[in-house]
From TrEMBL:
<keyword id="KW-0028">Amino-acid biosynthesis</keyword>
<dbReference type="InterPro" id="IPR004838">
    <property type="entry name" value="NHTrfase_class1_PyrdxlP-BS"/>
</dbReference>
<comment type="similarity">
    <text>Belongs to the class-II pyridoxal-phosphate-dependent aminotransferase family. Histidinol-phosphate aminotransferase subfamily.</text>
</comment>
<dbReference type="GO" id="GO:0004400">
    <property type="term" value="F:histidinol-phosphate transaminase activity"/>
</dbReference>
<dbReference type="InterPro" id="IPR015424">
    <property type="entry name" value="PyrdxlP-dep_Trfase"/>
</dbReference>
<dbReference type="Pfam" id="PF00155">
    <property type="entry name" value="Aminotran_1_2"/>
</dbReference>
<dbReference type="InterPro" id="IPR005861">
    <property type="entry name" value="HisP_aminotrans"/>
</dbReference>
<keyword id="KW-0368">Histidine biosynthesis</keyword>
<dbReference type="InterPro" id="IPR015422">
    <property type="entry name" value="PyrdxlP-dep_Trfase_small"/>
</dbReference>
<comment type="subunit">
    <text>Homodimer.</text>
</comment>
<comment type="pathway">
    <text>Amino-acid biosynthesis; L-histidine biosynthesis; L-histidine from 5-phospho-alpha-D-ribose 1-diphosphate: step 7/9.</text>
</comment>
<keyword id="KW-0032">Aminotransferase</keyword>
<dbReference type="InterPro" id="IPR050106">
    <property type="entry name" value="HistidinolP_aminotransfase"/>
</dbReference>
<dbReference type="InterPro" id="IPR015421">
    <property type="entry name" value="PyrdxlP-dep_Trfase_major"/>
</dbReference>
<keyword id="KW-0663">Pyridoxal phosphate</keyword>
<protein>
    <recommendedName>
        <fullName>Histidinol-phosphate aminotransferase</fullName>
        <ecNumber>2.6.1.9</ecNumber>
    </recommendedName>
</protein>
<keyword id="KW-0808">Transferase</keyword>
Length: 366
């Protein structure tokens, strides 16, 4: 029996998600220690103290199911962003939410639009439900919104936009998104995936909740995995029109967010000092990366995220392998159709210095 023959049509064209290499795996493979990982856009400051305390306070209650409605977390999010709790949907990471959007709004006959080089979970969730993927060729590695508009037809159900995008770091301004949304028919759901929005300077940031008030077909999705440092706990939230949230909550698994994640999320959303520290480090260190690239004439894609993607103008896999031998894990993105690029997450100052040193050695830079 070839089980692939009985899989859903869309599943046949999928390959498993390639995650960043875990530190322990490299330790085992090469027998080296003192490894740094700049591969998964994780928070370099480690797990926030505020979240640790929240977790300790939950330990005795872990025998109970979590609050299926996430009442306290929704209250926290609603107060922070001046929205209503009934506009919020909680997810087991925002990846869970992306899947929820597809399940709730698209089916086999429908088309889903996203960009070439956009976050790989969009094709994954689209193909898993057998919907038709309309991948729009990128413009300067980013979203070509005019191309999106031209691809809309009567079958279009869902549009995914990552802003900033991963793995390219491209960014669309509030004005560009506003102009785009004004032209999208109101029965098409537009998902604005803002997993990295906290890294964008407040003056540049898209006021996505203002857009939401203007365009009820918009869903804004956020993550606590990046700036907030909770990647291992899996928690994210979507903000939308209340009617959309009601639909999403019908499809959502009732206990998709665990008690520790719920409690930690409340703690870090109130921990402005932690996020400010993380964002400031990112801004400062991003400048060092840009200066490094400029000094050695390495071509990079300007990024508004917590990572930078460098074009080595030749297959990047050997560079990646050589960096592993220097104890530095970065991210190959050949799976995105970018075999000459590596994506590097911005780390702590000393981690970034190690990366610079390793790259100088590997590339023989003088
Ligand atoms: C990291 C990332 C996410 C968030 O993932 P979680 O499931 O919340 O950990 C969502 N979208 C993009 C574009 C990302 O890079």
């Amino acid at each position: 029996m070839q089980f692939i023959n009985i899989a859903n049509e869309g599943v046949k064209s999928l390959s498993p998600y390639q995650a960043g290499k875990p530190i322990e795996e490299l330790e085992r493979e090469l027998g080296i220690s003192n490894i740094i990982k700049l591969a998964s856009n994780e928070n370099p400051f480690g797990f926030p103290e505020s979240a640790k305390q929240a977790i300790m306070s939950q330990l005795n209650d872990l025998t109970r199911y979590p609050d299926a409605n996430g009442f306290e977390l929704k209250k926290t999010i609603a107060q922070k962003f001046h929205i209503e709790p009934n506009q919020i949907t909680l997810g087991n990471g925002s990846n869970d939410l992306l899947e929820l959007f597809a399940h709730t709004f698209a089916s086999e006959q429908d088309e889903v639009i996203y960009s070439q080089y956009a976050f790989i979970v969009y094709p994954l969730v689209t193909k898993a439900i057998n919907a038709t993927a309309r991948e729009i060729p990128a413009k300067n590695w980013g979203h070509d919104l005019d191309g999106f508009l031209a691809a809309i037809n009567e079958k279009t159900k869902l549009i995914f936009i990552a802003n900033p995008n991963n793995p390219t770091g491209n960014f669309l301004t509030h004005t560009e998104l506003d102009a785009f949304l004004a032209q999208v028919p109101s029965h098409i759901i537009v998902v604005l995936d803002e997993a990295y929005t906290e890294f964008t300077a407040p003056t540049e940031r898209v006021d996505s909740f203002a857009l939401l008030a203007k365009y009820p077909n918009l869903i804004v999705s956020r993550s606590l995995s990046k700036a907030y440092g909770l990647a291992g706990l899996r928690i994210g939230y979507a903000v939308s029109n209340a009617e959309i949230a009601d639909l999403l909550n019908r499809v959502r698994q009732p206990f998709n967010c665990n008690s520790l994640a719920l409690a930690s999320a409340i703690a870090v959303l109130n921990d402005d000092a932690f996020v400010a520290k993380v964002a400031a480090n990112n801004r400062q260190e991003m400048q060092r990366y840009e200066a490094f690239c400029q000094q050695y004439q390495l071509d990079y894609i300007p990024s508004k995220g917590n990572f930078i993607t460098i074009d080595f103008k030749r297959p990047a896999q050997p560079i990646y392998d050589a960096l592993l031998h220097e104890g530095v894990i970065v991210r190959p993105i050949a799976g995105y159709g970018m075999p000459n690029h590596l994506r590097i997450s911005i780390g702590l100052p000393e981690e970034n210095s190690r990366l610079f040193e390793a790259l100088r050695k590997v590339l023989n830079l003088q």
